[in-house]
What we know:
- This protein folds into two domains: about 180 residues, no CATH class; about 120 residues.
- It is globular, with a radius of gyration of 21 Å.
- By secondary structure, it is an all-alpha fold.
- Helices cover about 60% and strands about 0% of the residues.
- InterPro entries: DUF885.
- This is DUF885 domain-containing protein.
Amino acid sequence: MLSSLSLFGRVGLGLALVGTGFAQGPLTAGTATSVAGRSAALSSLFKEMWDDELKHSPEFASELGDRRYGDQLSDLSPRAVNDGLARGQGYLVRLAEIDTTGLSADEKLAVETMEERLAAAEEGARAKAWEMPVTQAGGVQVVLPGLAASLSFETVKDYDDWITRLKKIPDQIRQATEDMMAGIDERRVQPVAVLEMAEKQTEDLAGQKPEESVFARPLKRFSASIGAAERKRITDETLDAIQDDVLPAYVRFGKFLKVQAVPAGSPDGKASAVAPSGQRLEEAKILELRAKAKGSLGARFDSKAFADLIAKDYVLPMKGLEERVNGWIATQK
């Protein structure tokens, strides 16, 4: 994944979702005194944190099937890092205000897991792992083109959102470049081999013709409900955005990687600073589980039902979440 700039992404924090059996309700930690009230307050807080994650990690939200942020890209700026860190610290305080006496085992586990993730996130943010946004499996040269293949395009709005996203790619690549430049200045860099791989991936993207670009892939699978006139408009605007915005941005990024990033890379095969495993791996695991569920269920796969399951159980450790997903797959067959 992009190393999302959400509360749980850019600073390495984990997501938090309501666990099975959590009560629902509007009570806050400051007003809830009964077990039911505290359970409701915890559930409300976890839901708020999950919504925060989706809002600030729009690419991940889209891959889960949430279309609310389909025209957005993650903010990779240092300010976004600081904002996410501040939100995480606020959530830690609010979690600490909830007395877990009498709550269920799942709820207590959720609180402990979240406290650990939030604390690790703060440590990761202070280590400035965000200055290394390009990795072996992530970065603007991987995540953005991957969206074109993984997202579902069914309505005119889906395509219009995609066009808007394409026009925002130069800004996100600029932010990634600035982050990496700061990392170079502070000797916080990836191994040369990783950066050379990123350079090749970027040059491959930059060398594609607009109509053959991976970013034009959604144009090959129009829904039957979209008429000829709209198809032509969408096609023209998409190809224009690729030609005018996307390809030049990747050309510039490729030159930066070649001229500045690769020569400054770590020669010993080790990153100069270790990025926290945290949310990036958790997002990747969730998408892996989604692919597994979709592959197992085929036409019976329900994207919304899967997203609801994740929104209920994501606070569990990844092993526990995988068990829940496997159980859900079995019930859907």
